[in-house]
Structure formats: structure tokens, C-alpha cells
Write a structure and sequence with these properties.
Elements: H1 8-33, H2 65-69, H3 89-110, H4 119-122, E1 123-126, H5 131-134, H6 154-158, H7 163-173, E2 193-198, E3 206-211, E4 216-220, H8 227-231, E5 247-250, E6 257-262, E7 269-274, E8 279-283, E9 288-293, E10 304-308, E11 316-321, E12 325-330, E13 340-343, E14 349-354, E15 361-366, E16 370-375, E17 388-391, E18 396-401, E19 406-411, E20 415-420, E21 444-447, E22 462-463, E23 473-478, E24 482-487, E25 492-496, E26 507-510, E27 517-520, E28 526-529
Antiparallel strand pairs: 1-5, 2-3, 3-4, 4-5, 6-7, 7-8, 8-9, 10-11, 11-12, 12-13, 14-15, 15-16, 16-17, 18-19, 19-20, 20-21, 22-23, 23-24, 24-25, 26-27, 27-28
InterPro entries: WD40/YVTN_repeat-like_dom_sf (IPR015943), WD40_repeat_dom_sf (IPR036322), WD40_rpt (IPR001680), WD_repeat_DNA-damage-binding (IPR050853)
Family: Belongs to the WD repeat DDB2/WDR76 family.
Organism: Aspergillus terreus
């Protein structure tokens, strides 16, 4: 075989290969001579660039709690390697089983956990809480955002003729942004903030925030920056010399925390409601969390949208759901199935609140575009009838009651509406009292951009429940990256902002008695004015 003479065809083929190799070699040499790519490195040699000082690698990102808890995913393998013929019934069945397994894993991750939790079981990151450190010493353009463009300024205050209103405007506009740390460094929750509240303690600002994935963030804003950090603030120091604020992140729920409250007569307990269908009670002294209400089965999906408690009763929970239900449950009863529920709307109820001084009255805001006023004394289960209702052009996001009998609502028709039922004599109404459509019209309408879009939490008004003057006031987020404060008569009192606010503080809350205002953003960061 080896001595046989090559055919003409084989000779031509080898000549073509040699010619091609010579051409490639010449092209490579020409490219190297003009610097198009470096010459081939000898084996074991290192590039010249390695001699230079390497850049410090970025710290590895901490995986989310959900990813850490997830089971390892099996290594993927093609059907051919597994010996399964293409388009066979076996292949289809395997694909269906894989899809079903993924759906089941996702469902299990979102399923409500009814167990009681200790601090170590809830803790995600930050400092461990203790009861003493947690509690104070007195307690055991329409639709278009224009960032940083003010709609209320000092000129508006100067033009104010009413003496009391001017004094309050000056007081509220004088609130300063907490400057111990810039807002973009106070990341209280890993995900978008949906709800916030202050602890009622007046000795120090203690803030709670709930996010989209069920995390609960806790910030004690009485802390100060360490002296070493303050001394070297303007110097070129390492990051370790300028520590972030001390925060705590817990995870009591598996889905969005939609609402939370601390009853003033029971200040050691925080109640949180969630889209995982549960209401939990966190003991701030023992730092434990227990489930107080939930459907009988963990498979029942009844997302809770709102939560409130009557001032004169720290034992009773009231809530609304995304299915249009309103519920009441007395925590002193041993069985959770003793809760009373009413279906008040065919569509979701986005928010509600009780009338603080007469809690048998409550107001609801719904996706069906209505704000309705209800009386628990005359609330039928078969066909509940409201005291009255007012329909807006678009959906109503929230209805907030204050102690004077006023209800403030926010709506996607870009308006804030104030209904003054106190002036209509609500404390003296008898059971069965009703209001006509004309009587249900809002007393004040304020233009306000409420077009939050997909990534910003819905704007909701929140009253200061115990103001230190006769003028009622509420706060609400502003799409221009401010928090606006209005009086009960619709007069703007202040527009709070400051350097370092890089996102919309959409979730805005007042302390119940002190002039402290907090705002939470879609990135889990907060701003605080005091």
C-alpha cells in the first residue's frame, strides 16, 4: 500500500492543502506585523499585563434567601444521551413531569408557613434584635413624573395669609432629612417596600418596613454614626471606616407584606398582614412571631390587602382581601374559623380603614372605582348595603380615616379626595343611616399625579392619627421624588425632599403623634424627616 504511486487526484488534493497552509501562514504573519492580534504565547508564559497590579475583585453578591433555600437543580441531559427517541411519548411525558416539578417548587416556595418563628428562624441579615434595644424607654404633570421639580416652595408659604396655616406650613417645611447617612445607604429591605409604620414610642424613631417578598426591615433611627466614621468623613478612607447604619431584616412571611400596625395600648406587638393569606403577631420583647389568623388550609389563597385595629380594642383584627372580602376576628377565641367575613365587592379592595373614634364605621377603596362607607351595626352577610358610595373615574387605591371623621382617598384619576363625614354628623348617626349620592361627593379634590406604573408602589394617603394641633394633616408620596403633606382642608403644608433621594419615596407614613415622616422606595431604601 505504501509503495503504490499516488493518483493524479490525490496529488492535486495534497497540493491544494499545502497551498492553503502557506496562505494562512502568510496572512497570520502580516496581521501580527501590523498589530491586529498578539503573537502566540510560549507555553507556560504569562501575559505582560499580569505583571501589573490586579484590580481588587468585587465582593461576591450574597444570594437571596430563596435561592439559598432552594434544592439543587438536577444536571440537564439531552434526550439522546438518555436513550429517548425524539418526538416519542416518553419524551413528552418527561417534559411534562419536569414542568410540573418546577411549578410545584414555585408553589411550595410561596406557600404560607403557619409555624411560630423565633428570631434566628426569621433573621435574614443585620443585627439581632433584643427587646430592650428595640423598644423605647417609655414602652416596655398629569401622569408624567418630573424628578426634583417642586410644586410647593417657600414662596407659597410667604403668600399664606392665615396665621395658623402659615405657622404649620413653616413647621412642617422645616423638617430636615436625617443626615446621619444618605438615603441611598439606608437599605431596609431587599425588595420593593410595600408598607411602613412607626412604632408609637415618642422617645426614638423606630421604623418597620415590609417588602414584596415578605421581608420585614427594622431601623432604629436614634443611632448615630460612629465617631471614627464621622472624623474621617471627608478623607480618603477605606469603606470599613464608614460603616452603614445598623439594620435588621427578618422574613416572617413568604409573600408581600401588604400592611402592618402597632396598637397604641399594646406597643410590644407588631401585626403584619400578607398576600400569603396570613396575619402574624411579632412580640418585640421576645422577638418571636406567631400566626394569629389564616385560612384553614395552607392551599387556600386569599391575599390580605389591608389591616386595622380599633383604638378601644387591642384584641380584634379587621382586614380586607384582594378578593373583595372584609373580615373580623377576635384573637381571644380559640378557633380561627370563628372569624366573620363579608363579601363587599366583586373586585379587589385595595385599602380600608376604621373610623378611630367610632370603629363600627369603616371606609373601603376598590378596583371597581368606588369609595364606600360602611356600618358594621347594619352589615348583612347576604347582601351588604353601604351607608353610601362615591364612584371615581378610575380605580381608588386607598381610603384613610382620621379622628375628625374625614376620609382621604387616592385614585388613578390623578386626584386626592377628602370626604368630611365629621361635618355631616357621623358620630350621631343611628344604625341604618344612609347618604345620598350628593351627600357622598368629596368636599375637597386635589390634583396629584398617581401614575406609579409597574415598578413603583401605589401611592396611598396616611393621616397623622394624633396631631399636636387642631389642623389635621396627611402625607403621600410624590412622583417627583418628594413626600407631600396636606391639611384636612386640602391645603399643601410641605413638600419634603433632600439630597441623596434617588427614587420615588412612594410609601409615606406619619408617626402617630410626633412630626416624623418616613418614605420607602422601590429599591428597599428609606428617607426620614424629623
Amino acid at each position: 500500500m505504501g509503495g503504490e504511486e499516488l493518483s493524479e487526484f490525490e496529488k492535486q488534493r495534497l497540493a491544494n492543502i499545502a497551498e492553503r497552509d502557506a496562505l494562512l501562514k502568510k496572512l497570520t504573519q502580516d496581521a501580527q506585523s501590523v498589530g491586529l492580534f498578539p503573537p502566540k504565547m510560549p507555553k507556560g508564559a504569562s501575559p505582560a499585563g499580569d505583571k501589573a497590579k490586579k484590580k481588587k475583585p468585587a465582593p461576591k453578591k450574597v444570594k437571596k434567601e430563596e435561592e439559598a433555600a432552594a434544592a439543587p437543580v438536577p444536571r440537564r441531559m439531552s434526550s439522546r444521551l438518555r436513550g429517548i427517541a425524539a418526538e416519542s411519548e416518553v419524551a413528552k411525558r418527561k417534559a411534562d413531569e419536569h414542568g410540573a416539578a418546577l411549578q410545584e417548587a414555585e408553589r411550595a416556595k410561596r406557600m404560607r408557613k403557619s409555624d411560630s418563628f423565633s428570631l434566628s428562624e426569621m433573621l435574614v441579615s443585620g443585627q439581632k434584635l433584643s427587646g430592650e434595644s428595640l423598644l423605647g424607654v417609655d414602652v416596655v404633570t398629569k401622569g408624567v413624573a418630573m424628578p426634583y421639580q417642586r410644586t410647593f416652595s417657600d414662596e407659597d408659604i410667604k403668600k399664606t395669609t392665615d396665621k395658623d396655616l402659615k405657622a404649620l406650613r413653616e413647621e412642617m417645611s422645616g423638617l430636615g432629612l436625617w443626615d446621619a447617612w444618605e438615603p441611598n445607604r439606608i437599605k431596609l429591605t431587599p425588595e420593593r417596600i410595600y408598607t411602613m409604620t412607626f412604632h408609637p414610642s415618642e422617645t426614638k424613631p423606630l421604623i418597620f418596613a415590609g417588602d414584596k417578598m415578605g421581608h420585614l426591615g427594622v431601623l432604629d433611627a436614634s443611632q448615630t454614626k460612629p465617631v471614627s466614621a464621622a472624623t474621617h468623613e471627608d478623607e480618603d478612607e477605606e469603606d470599613d471606616d464608614d460603616p452603614d447604619p445598623v439594620l435588621t431584616t427578618l422574613k416572617p412571611h413568604t409573600r408581600t407584606i401588604s400592611c402592618m400596625t402597632v396598637h397604641p395600648s399594646k406597643p410590644t406587638h407588631l401585626y403584619t398582614a400578607s398576600y400569603d393569606s396570613s396575619i402574624r403577631e411579632m412580640d418585640l420583647e421576645k422577638t418571636t412571631s406567631v400566626e394569629r389568623y389564616a385560612p384553614a388550609s395552607t392551599a387556600d389563597d386569599v391575599p390580605i390587602s389591608g389591616l386595622d385595629m380599633a383604638l378601644d380594642d387591642p384584641h380584634c383584627l379587621y382586614w380586607t382581601t384582594l378578593d373583595g372580602e372584609f373580615g373580623r376576628y377576635d384573637m381571644r377565641t380559640p378557633r380561627q374559623d370563628s372569624a366573620t367575613r363579608w363579601t363587599l365587592s366583586d373586585k379587589k379592595i385595595g385599602g380600608f380603614s376604621l373610623y378611630p373614634t367610632h370603629p363600627h364605621y369603616f371606609a373601603t377603596a376598590s378596583l371597581d372605582r368606588t369609595m364606600r362607607l360602611w356600618d358594621l351595626r347594619k352589615l348583612s352577610h347576604k347582601s351588604p348595603v353601604a351607608v353610601g358610595e362615591h364612584e371615581s373615574r378610575l380605580s381608588v387605591s386607598h381610603a384613610a380615616f382620621n379622628g375628625a371623621g374625614q376620609v382621604a382617598t387616592s385614585s388613578y384619576d390623578d386626584s386626592l379626595k377628602i370626604y368630611d363625614f365629621g361635618a355631616k354628623g357621623i358620630p350621631s348617626w343611628k344604625p341604618g343611616h344612609s347618604l345620598s349620592d350628593a351627600q357622598m361627593k368629596p368636599d375637597v379634590v386635589v390634583r396629584h399625579n398617581c401614575q406609579t406604573g409597574r415598578w413603583v408602589t401605589i401611592l396611598r394617603p396616611q393621616w397623622q392619627q394624633n396631631p399636636q394641633s387642631h389642623i389635621q394633616r396627611f402625607c403621600i408620596g410624590n412622583m417627583n421624588r418628594f413626600v407631600d403633606i396636606y391639611s384636612g382642608s386640602g391645603d399643601q403644608l410641605a413638600q419634603l425632599g433632600g439630597d441623596g433621594i434617588t427614587a420615588v419615596p412612594a410609601v409615606a407614613v406619619f408617626h402617630r403623634s410626633k412630626n416624623w415622616v418616613a418614605g420607602g422606595t422601590a429599591s428597599g431604601k428609606i428617607c426620614l424627616w424629623m
